Amino acid sequence: MPSSPPIPAKKRVLSGMRSTGKLHLGNYVGALANWVKLQDTHDCFFFIADWHALTTDYADPSEVNVNVDEVALDWLAAGLDPDKCVMFVQSHVLQHAELHLLFSMITPLGWLERVPTYKDQQQNLSGKDLTTYGFLGYPLLMAADILIYKADFVPVGEDQVVHIELTREIARRFNNFYAQKNPLLPEPQPLLTKTPKLPGTDGRKMSKSYDNYILLSDSEADIRKKLKTMVTDPARVKRTDPGNPDLCPVGDLHKIFSDAKTLENVYAGCRTAGIGCIECKGWAADNLIKTIAPMQERRREYQQKNVVREIVAAGDAKARSVAEATMKQVREVMGLSHSISPASAGATARQK
User: Could you tell me if 111 and 166 are in contact, meaning their C-beta atoms sit under 8 angstroms apart?
Assistant: First the structure.
């Protein structure tokens, strides 16, 4: 009887989120919803990036532990399953720091200075002193995060592709120096994800920095209150003015969270001034609340069971095992893997 063909191994995916506390709709739409799908088709490693959070918030780390718990809760609430993926905390796997240090020895300074987000974030976060190596070197730490798990894919938006290309360059440089015949570090590919446009309440990109966000854990009352203040199509100055949902931030919310019938009513009512903005916002709130209600119920269940830290600890252990296996290979090819034979150890002892 012929043997069955081997089952191909799942491709590995690696991604992370900074530990900035409870997650908002932008985090869910931009990444988390896609992660929930990927865990069924790929070998997924997802980490809470507390070290990355310190690159900009190093002055006050008092909320780090609380923020880690909140992010983990929201991940589980959104549908990440610890039986399908590995969820862990970046700083609980010290091998990331070791590989980052070794990469810093071989990475030209100019590679880091040319990363577009380096200067962009300095301008956007002008109130903070970001003239630190930690901030300059965060793309290098990101490369270590990815390469230590030999990830095949990293799900990113187009604005993050430059970081993946830097990671690929670092992998090539490392292999060229230390593993030419048998390349050790694979070059990961960006897994481009199309993310719907999700504006905040002021019309800009939803962000905690802009204080224009809606949390996945916000109460129904808070969601309705925030949406009432949301900006709309500027052409609708008066109730009788027709509008265009394609130019309205509330229309963008409907496109993501509302069903086809509601969306049809929004277009018809807005373009003819048949509905007012308050009514339209109410419909958006109804559908948004309906979408996240199951997440909030799961969040409450995990809180009551008090198992989040246990789940994360199990993920930490799995991640450390994989990361250490890579580091053993890295140390070996770099000549950093030292061993002392029993005879040598005895001679050393006698000399003492």
Answer: yes
